[in-house]
Amino acid sequence: MTKTVHYQDTIPGGAHWSMVVKKGLTLRLTDDEGGANVGMLFYNPNNLLERYNAPDTLKCQHTFKLTKGNCLYSDMGRIFCSIIEDSAGWHDTVCGNTNKKLTLKKWGEKNYQDYRNDWQLNGNDAFLVEVAKYGLGKEDLAANLNLFSHVYVDKQGNLQYQDSSKAGSFIELRFEMDTLVVFHTCPHPLNPAEDYPKKPVSYQLLSSAPVTEDDYCKNLCGENQRGFQNTALYNLGR
Q1: What's the confidence (pLDDT) of residue 2?
Q2: Which range of residues forms the domain containing residue 158?
Q3: Torsion of CA 95, 99, 105, 110, to 10 degrees
Q4: In the structure, what pLDDT confidence band is assigned to residue 103 with cuts at 50, 70 and 90?
Q5: What's the CA angle centered on 65, arms 43 and 214, to 5 degrees?
């Protein structure tokens, strides 16, 4: 079935954006050049105290990575969105964000005053700029996703970055409830690139197909079935 494209745009590397994505829409993100990173957080726009919960997302689905079939949970046991398609195959859930100190150490300083749009923004500050638009601050930042970034654990127990996302890699997030999506395209904190990588990411807002009883994400595990029930009950009260 061809999905209707309601809106599309491209976010340059080292930038940030936010939007409210309504239930029934799918957000498709594409790594245009390869090697992109998308730091992402979710909030309930009708109750900003409800937000993405990384520990619950991982433990209830018994996973370290995110890929097709996984659902992204709030701290109320509800599902913000489900990963219905994924050509990258692995998305980081544990490494967090770059900050000003780390960015300065890895890539030097390029401030906005001197370099304008060629400056080097860090992920933490990018999130803070976006959440401030909704009356939120640093105490409201949670552990974030890093889409398109592959991080694994080596035999010595160290986290290792693998630049595995290729040009054209994509992920589709189907939203099960209205969600404030906050994201940036700043580098992954473990990215070993010598120069600050600015990798653009395109996105599309699409119509979602109805969720059926045999839905792959819904039936990935028993916890997801309960998560869908919790979300359906919440949506009934909206």
Answers
A1: 61
A2: 5-236
A3: 130
A4: very high
A5: 75
Q: Flag whether pLDDT at 118 surpasses 90.
A: no
User: Average pLDDT over the chain, rounded to whole?
Assistant: 95
SS3 97: coil
Nearest to 53 by CA among 37, 68, 42: 42
| Pairwise CA distance, residues 147 & 130, whole Å | 18
pLDDT tens for 187-238 read 999 999 999 999 999 999 999 999 999 999 999 999 999 999 999 999 998 7
pLDDT (0 to 100) of residue 116 = 83
> Which amino acid, one-letter code, is at 194?
E
Per-residue tokens: 150? 């592959």
Based on the structure, what is the number of domains in the chain? 1
Cα–Cα distances (Å) from 93 to 99, 107, 143, in that order, read 17, 23, 8
Distance separating alpha carbons of residues 181 and 40, to the nearest angstrom: 7
pTM above 0.90? yes
Q: Alpha carbon 121 to chain centroid distance?
A: 18
Q: How far is 113 from 123, CA to CA, in rounded Å?
A: 18
State the Rg of the chain over Cα: 17
- At residue 56, what are phi and psi to the nearest 5 degrees? -65, -40
Contact by Cβ (8 Å): 151, 190: yes
**Where do we find the tokens 């009260």?**
237
User: Kind of pairing, strands 16-21 and 179-184?
Assistant: antiparallel
Q: How is residue 195 annotated by DSSP? A: S
